[in-house]
User: What shape does this take?
Amino acid sequence: MENSELKETPLREQHLAAGAKLVPFAGWNMPVQYAEGIIAEHLRTRTAVSLFDICHMGEFEVDGPKAAAELDRILARPVLDQPPGSCRYNFLLNDAGGVQDDLIVYRLDAEGFFIVVNAATAAHDAAEFRRGLSGDTEFNDVSAATGKLDLQGPQAAEILVELGVDRQSLPCYYHWTNVEIAGIPCLLSRTGYTGELGFELYVAVEDTASLWELLTARGVKPAGLGARDTLRLEMGYPLYGHELDLYHTPVEAGFGAMLRLAAMPSRRFVGSAALRHNAPRQYLRGIRLEGRRAARAGMMVQDIAGNVIGRVTSGAFAPTLGVAVAMAWIDAAAISEVGTVVNIEAGKTLLPGKIAALPFYDRGTARMKTV
Amino acid sequence: MEMKYYSKEHEWVEVKDGEAYVGISVHAAEELGDITFVELPHEGDSCHAGDSLGVVESVKAASDVYAPVSGKIVAVNSQLEDKPEMVNASPEEQAWFCRIAMSDASELDALMDEAAYTAYLNN
Assistant: This one.
């Protein structure tokens, strides 16, 4: 049976008790939704708080006096100047500048790093890091020993305070700290994938169920990967394997400025030569559709004259907006300014829409001050 | 007495006053999850059993709705266009998709009754 090969998170029993639909995702048996459904979970995350089981993602530890310099050569965004206590969104590229993975680097101290990667790419990423790091730098894949829970929504900080976390110690946006919750040591970062105020909590895998129970006992309800996907799509956040892949660069995906290619002309990293020399062929754009019918990944995008100018990477009904939205790769030669009218080929019909500014949903609380 | 029939594609048909009300089953609505979009057929069009009558979409999936019987579409439930969530709330009562004036009532014999459909779902 195919399902027997799926990995289970430590929370299977809790998911089933909450009425979860479990589906295969990146080799894991994951909750796509609970009894309430994706839209209720989505809206609750925007207005209150939700808890997500994200144990499938991979985590690495990198340590050593040369770790910062070596990671700076492996990853597309600078690492050397990253301050301890901060988190930085980053990319692992191939020599052509294509994205092997998008990930977050946590700088623990001068020599130590914690890296969070996608589940589907974790094994390949580990091999790439081992290949790129010297023998003097220690590399550990701690994915199997690490549990990860995301607490996301405008009430997330209050929940942590209720559980005894000192309000003053809550990290700022894209920073992390160590806390204890009921005696459970947690690495707590002010990060997430929803656009709302929220935290990601990393604990020993054996503590994951206890932490889940503590949070749900406070009245926090779970949300599944379905809501996680519609929440990130409303924010225009890319999902590896959809928006990001081996055949598109972070520059094409709209992340060029954070790579500081012009500001640091002599900095070299895997893929840097390709990024500096190759002009973008396509750009990642958001499309806001006129109606509720969703464009789906793989559908073609037409300009107003009927020429195919791109392809949809993700699309769904956006619960907060009440219309469908999509992301798409649009040919660099085509006009794709915000407001440009496009049509998406959905079988025999065309779904009309316009190129939209990202994020589609601009009232997210992710960056709000908590104290 | 009104008889209710089901197709293997999870549409239901209920015959009242010689016209067939058509919708999707409770099972289909539950499987799709939160329904976000419904495309209905056009009133006045003819359909053949097995034709696509329209589309129903949830957050995660899109699915065709097939005509379980042949005939002429005499009415559509246009409320569903603005309130597709009605399909989750009341799939086999309020959320009928269309009414078909059947051209061949014997096509109903090819469908399942409720007991046969339940057995089909459990199979």
Summary: The radius of gyration of chain B is 13 Å. The mean pLDDT of chain B is 95. Chain B has one domain: 4-118. The beta strands of chain B are 4-6, 11-16, 19-24, 35-39, 46-47, 52-58, 62-66, 71-76, 98-102.
